[in-house]
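Handout for the seminar on molecular recognition.
Each group receives one record of this type.
Step one: identify the two inputs.
Step two: read the structure output and locate the region that could contact zinc ion.
Step three: write two sentences on what you found, then compare them with the reference statements printed after the record.
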Amino acid sequence: MSFRSYITSLLSLLLVTAAVSAQAAEYELVYRATVSPDREVARVEIRLQGEKLPRRLVLHLNPERHLKLHSDAGLTLDGDRAIWKPKAPQASLHYEFVISEQKASGSYDSLLTADWAILRSDKLIPPITVSVAKGLNARAQLQFELPSGWSSAAPYANTSESKHHYEIVDPGRLLPRPKGWLILGNITSRQDIIAGVDVRVAAPAGQGERLQDTLAFLAWTLPDVKDVFPGFPDRLLVVTAGKPMWRGGLSGTRSLFMHADRPLISGNRTSSMIHELVHVATGINGGKDADWIVEGLAEYYAANILWRSGALSDLRYQQTLDWKENWARKADTLFVKRSSGPVTARAALFMHRLHLALQDPTDGAAGLDDVARELARDRGRVSLAQLKQIVHALAGAEVDVDALIADLE
Ligand SMILES: [Zn+2]
């Protein structure tokens, strides 16, 4: 072996060693919640274990729901922030989480009863920012300690050890954190694979009369939703319950809540279930003045997917568009902080017109699906400028977004 090849081998050996140690730099992260109907709070432990741990975690607390934080070492409280410097090889942080949350209307969007609990894991575990060495990765689990006889459903796969332990996937995040809806307790559920998506619909026991209808509705419509959004998550949990839960639909990560009294298709021939599915599919949120884009897309597809899947005839779909056009007149702008009611109708109408405008110069090759897919590509914040760029890339100067918006007046 020449000196040169010796050095080369030595170098490659060092590189391999570096790669292996970077690969091996993994630590365990366990979010463990103990829930019991005897206590109105969940007891939460965040446990880290490994030769190396993140330098610093900052938890952004909700002071009304995250209480009594404590740790053996390294914890400082600063207003609504908890700064935690964990020490290897093992460190734990504990707190209590107030499960039930009543809205001003008197209904709940998070509730613990004697038999079940419905809540969101991204509220249970607050947002956390982390300082961590490059290449140090977490293997994360969400675990529940529940009374005997209680079940759990979360939008994650079970680990092989326990049906109450879930493997957390949180792509692109330095610190994986559980997100989405949860239902715990005496529950009933139905499951199927639809268009490659592992779908589970769940309700408190005794409230599951419509689980099969809901699953069949998803079997009917989800393939068309996935056609528009091929990046649809591989897992979907739909949680439903009746009073006193909030009478609406609310999407979360890989999951959604829908009140049991809400029809799958309403009188005006739109579907709040599809509306929420589109939110799950896109994972986008509106930046400044762009909430109408997020809501407009969801509301456009809430009727369009019904038509596309054959649930509405051309005539009935046209009537729905006419109805939206009338309702949209009650709003005089798209640019509000939170789009709802007539503003969302106006935004859905814009989406419909944008679709028609794109069809013309492209001989039907481009349409709103292309715009929606592109907006959803990075699952983050969207803006009007981004929408304009996408439209420009599809149809050049022939489609003028500003003119389409102005035409809504
Ligand atoms: Zn919405």
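Reference statements: The domain at 279-409 is CATH 1.10.390.10 (Neutral Protease; domain 2). Residues 14-22 have pLDDT under 50 and may be disordered.
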